[in-house]
Amino acid sequence: MIRVAAVDDDRMLLEGLRSWLADVPGLRLVATVGTVAELTAPADVVLLDLRLRDGTLPADNIRRLVADGNRVLVISTVPDRDQVIAAIRAGAGGYLTKDNDLATLVGALHAVAAGDTAYSPELAHALANDPAGPPLSAQERAVLVAYASGLTLTAAARRAGVSPHTAKAYLDRVKDKYRQAGRPTWTKLDLANRAREDGLL
Q1: Model confidence over 25-61: pLDDT tens digits?
Q2: Which of 26, 153, 182, 185 is the most buried (most CB within 10 A)?
Q3: Where does the record place the Response regulatory domain (predicted)?
Q4: Which domain does 69 fall in, by range?
Q5: CB contact set of 89 (below 8 Å; sequence gap of 6+)
C-alpha cells in the first residue's frame, strides 16, 4: 500500500484527488493540507503543488520534505523546463502537469514510490536532452555520487541504504539516462566524469 499525501492550496483540487484516489487499489490518500508545515502524517509519496500561496519557495519545500524522508512528486499547471530541473535538483522524484489523467498520475506515484522518476510526457524529451545533465531521482543521485567518488558497489549501496542489487539497477538507469542525453556512459570512470561535469562531485 502506497501512502500518498497532497500539499496544495487549491481546495477543489484536493477534493478531486480524494475522489480520484478513493478506489485505486494499492494507494491510500492519508493527508490533504495547504502547506508543507501542516503535513504531519507519514507518507510514501507527497504530491506537492509547485507554488503555494504561503510564500514558501518550491525548492525549500522539496528539500524540507525530502529531509523528512518523503519522496516528492511535484504537480503544477505550468510545464516549464527550468522549473522542472530546479525541482529535480532540489530532490523531487518527478513533475506532472495538472492536466494529466488518473492513469498517468497513478503510474507516476508508483514510479516515485519505487525510487524512480516520473514526468509529464511533454517534458520527458526536453529533460532527457538538458545540457546540465539528465534528471536523476534522489536515490539514483545518492548511489552515483557514492560510487563515482571511489567506493565499491557494495559500499556505495550501504551508504545509500539500499542493497547492492538495487544500487546496480540505479547505476544502470543512470548510465542509460546519460546515453539517451547523448553523453556516452559505460564505465565507472565515465560515471565519475559525468558526475564531475554536472557538479555532483
Answers
A1: 999 999 999 999 999 988 999 999 988 989 899 999 9
A2: 185
A3: 3-113
A4: 2-128
A5: 59
- Is the model's pTM score more than 0.85? no
Alpha carbon separation from 102 to 27, 40, 190 (Å, rounded): 12, 25, 39
CA atoms of 139 and 69, how far apart (whole Å): 12
Question: If you average pLDDT over every residue of the chain, what do you get?
Answer: 86
Residue type, 116: D
Let me know: does 141 contact 170? Beta carbons within 8 Å: no
From the number of C-beta atoms within 10 Å of its C-beta (0-12, 13-18, 19+), residue 186 rates as: exposed
CATH of the domain at 176: 1.10.10
- Is residue 20, in this structure, part of any structural domain at all? yes
Q: Is residue 133 part of a domain?
A: no
In the beta sheet, which residues pair with residue 72? 46
Cell of 85: 530541473
Q: Beta 27-33 vs 118-119: how paired, if at all?
A: unpaired
Q: Distance between CA 180 and CA 166 in Å, rounded?
A: 21
What letter does residue 76 receive in the DSSP assignment?
E
Angle at 160 between CA 76 and CA 169, to 5 degrees: 80
Nearest by Cα to 158 from 71, 68, 166, 69: 166
Largest Cα separation within the chain, whole Å, is: 50
